[in-house]
Amino acid sequence: MRYSGLRVLAEGLRGNRGWRPAWRKPAPRPGYDAIIIGGGGHGLATAYYLARNHGLTNVAVLEKGWLGGGNIGRNTTIVRANYFLPGNSEFYSFSLKLWEGMERELNYNVMHSQRGLINLFHSDGQRDAFARRGNMMRAQGDDAVLLDREGVRRMLPRLDYEQARFPIYGGLYHPRGGTARHDAVAWGYARAADARGVDLIENCEVTGIDIRDGRVKGVQTTRGAIWAPKVGIVVAGRSSQVAAMAGMRLPIESHVLQAFVTEGLKPALDHVVSFGMGHFYISQSDKGGLVFGGDLDFYASYAARGNLPMVEHVMEAGMTLMPMIGRAKVLRSWGGIMDMSPDGSPVIDRTGVEGLYVNCGWNYGGFKAVPASGWSMAHLMATGQPWHDAAHFRLDRFRTGRGLMDEEGTGAQHNLH
Description:
The protein is α/β, with parallel strands linked by helices. 28% of the residues lie in helices and 25% in strands. It has an 8-stranded mixed beta sheet. A 6-stranded mixed beta sheet has the order 8-2-1-12-19-18.
């Protein structure tokens, strides 16, 4: 079924009785050509691009809960391509291009809004660092504009420019950055993958990975054994647990990242704003709620909920940057399980088991990377070779020390990335 304005109007006049389910609910078959473990954004995008780019349609996505119930539905929806280091810069630039064509590609409204992203800086040293980053972005072919204080004030008049501790010197403006509806991204990829013949199997938890003579043979699940010569692990914060089923220990720590949304307000914030000194980021949703977040909870956990000290920290940062936020009522909060790598950059690579692949370590970059991650993982699983823009995301860089990508310059401590 194709969506269009005319179809929405016609169904509205008929009581919306003509809509069909967006995807099938198949029972698992005995075997597939490939299995994707994880029905979030990255897993669904991988399945879609396996079918779309490589013609592999005998594919199953196995999700222990419901599609889109993990980190893809637990984030602050920011889409950007403002990375600095070679390897990351090309990858996220490619991802942003895929975002820009996603709605037409999937025939699905993911509410992608290129409202612009502004990273504030608060010292001469930060200005120089952001100027370097902006030059790198422009050299990569992306957009970046260095704003002085008055330039930021014209675009963001409701910030506190008189604060003594963290005065706003200016900002790096990324006009093509913005937001998207997080769960709609999962639904769009799910619908498109299903239309190409991919089986999306919910409530099917993987309990074991079958390996024989160094090769993967399939998986054990709560709905029975499923055979496959290729298996991709795409489970974000659960990567270490699933990899352990194959006898692997990944260089990943899982941490909780909280986010918050307020009651609906009149339009007050046209852009996405990142406040580096307080590690605070905020935007306003189409429904009017202010969506914001901050630091990790700073201890390893698999709990999809956060702690109160970090709630206080985020609220303090918000009040420092934008005192008017103190008048808004917070409706709800949530926590995503972040798979943090030692150098702050992801892994898309083969493992030591033939036919077993891993996609993990997305840190803060997971949502914005969804399309390029799926594209790259599909290319790797279909051809056995890395997609060129993801060639730096090797698993062995943590063992050898070669090719490490410390994007934020914070060293090898997982929770600081």
